[in-house]
Amino acid sequence: MNDFYLIIKNITRKKLRLTLTLFSIFIAFTIFGAITALKASLDSGIDMSADNRLVVVNKINFTVSIPYAYVNKIKAIDGVKDLTHANWFGGYYQEPATQIMSFAIDPESYFKVYEELIVEPTEFQAWLSNQSGMLVGERLAKVYGWKVGDRVPISSNIFSQKTGGQTWEFTVDGIFHADDLKVDTGYMVFHYKYFRETNSYGGDSVGWLTLTTTDASLNETVAKAIDDNFANSSAETETSTEKAFNKAFLEQIGNIGLIIFGVVFMAFFTILIVVGNTMVLAIRERTNEIAVLKTLGFTSIRIFTMVLAESLLLAFIGGLLGLTAAHLIVQAMSDQLAKFLPNIAVDQTVVFQALIYMTLLGLITGIMPALNALRLNIVTAFNKG
């Protein structure tokens, strides 16, 4: 007799119980897939940080600007390869609620420091020659349907123009993309010089500096040299690796990892109890049948394997259905989430983690019933029956 046939007949003998068990597993893995994809998207800024990239901010707080004069001083420090600067613009499109990540940058140095960003040479040259032009990230352009040549009004909730008003008219001179889908392209950049000349206040200051070192092993030495150079000045600095800076920035909204772990753990713990109890009950109901199978010549190991296979099959069916649902949910919401998050997807890493958890779920919930079936004494089973 085919073992797989027996396994299918056993798990489908009570349709309602099968449905409820699969639904529980389905919900757990839908939650897991969606939330893990969200965490991966939030962590992408940390994961994609360059090893030799440092960020320099004002020691008081990264929202406090630092003098523009620091640019050339830091360039002269040994170990510094390329350096750029940026200002947070606080932009929005049409309505204040429609926030746009927007930065005033130095055009020549920015794309040397961020080598993973790619701009077509013709578009880049057009942007260099147009002070009121902007480069738009591929993800942001997709959200609003912007294309090269469009005139786009971007307002600021922080700055105002010398001529009055808080809206700047920009021309989309190019659209940049990244060499890796995990790299965020949901923002726009424009000329710092244009920003400084049209802005009504702020003077010669920058929001932060980003630099690359000639070798990642020099990071600590360069960071110390920078901070020591401006110690006891009116604008002391704090220099950290890009990875550490992005992690600290993300943690301002809470420990995302802990929150996600808590949600996933509670879901899985609940499912573990439900599925475990279901499997124990199912095997207990089939005590006489297992005794009959042993009488007919089925070995204890064979029955052990069949029971464990039932549990694993349930875990994989429910888990794969849940993962598929998570993928569809994330895909359906990707356009809306694209305004706030880097490319969010249930990728291979999420799938691989989910498969491991499905296996663990099947083994943990099935091991005790399988062992009970393995140890079952034929005479005792018939006497109980």
What would you say this structure looks like, in words?
- The protein is α+β, with helices and mostly antiparallel strands and 385 residues long.
- The chain has helices at 3-11, 15-47, 70-75, 107-113, 121-128, 138-144, 192-198, 219-229, 242-250, 256-285, 287-295, 300-337, 348-375, 378-384; strands at 53-58, 66-67, 80-88, 91-92, 99-105, 117-118, 133-137, 151-156, 167-178, 187-191, 205-206, 208-213, 237-241.
- α2 (15-47) packs antiparallel against α10, α11 runs antiparallel to α14 and α12 (300-337) runs antiparallel to α13.
- The longest helix has 38 residues, at 300-337.
- The model has no long low-confidence stretch (mean pLDDT 85).
What's a concise summary of this model?
The chain has 14 helices and 13 strands. It is α+β, with helices and mostly antiparallel strands.
Give the topology, please.
Blueprint (H helix, E strand, L loop, with lengths): L2 H9 L3 H33 L5 E6 L7 E2 L2 H6 L4 E9 L2 E2 L6 E7 L1 H7 L3 E2 L2 H8 L4 E5 H7 L6 E6 L10 E12 L8 E5 H7 L6 E2 L1 E6 L5 H11 L7 E5 H9 L5 H30 L1 H9 L4 H38 L10 H28 L2 H7 L1
Parallel strand pairs: 5-10, 7-9
Antiparallel strand pairs: 1-12, 1-13, 2-11, 3-5, 3-12, 4-5, 4-8, 6-9, 7-10, 8-9
Helix pairs in contact: 1-12, 2-9, 2-10, 2-12, 10-13, 11-14, 12-13
